[in-house]
Sequence to fold (130 residues):
Amino acid sequence: MTDSRDNIIVEKSEKFADRITKMYKYLSEKRSGDKDMLKQIVRSGTSVGANVSEGQYAQTKADFLTKMTIALKEANETRFWLKRLYSYGSLSDKEYESIIKDSEEVISILTIITKTTKENLKNEQSCKKQ
Fold:
């Protein structure tokens, strides 16, 4: 695929995974929080980057789409857990606003990638039938 230095979703998903991991460590050590919720968010938050990374070496466009779709689902799940942590009182307003913004950016980019890839696959299949 492309060089990861030039690929914004690779960069953003890696930075997002780093932020989630740091948040997990901070909340686990410094504040009381729901341990199960924290484990869940670190799984989903780091899974976004892992699936994006796997997608960079996809064997086919369909495989790439699958990886990006999974990354999008994981990003959406992470947003869910961030909202729960915030409503639970584990994140301050400032902390929440900062990290939710990052999650929304990742979700927006992945949404565009999945929609574009679906359209491209559909167009390729349409051309093959003609």
Q: What stands out?
A: Residues 1-5 have pLDDT under 50 and may be disordered. The two ends are 28 Å apart (CA to CA). The longest helix spans residues 93-129. The chain has four helices and no strands.
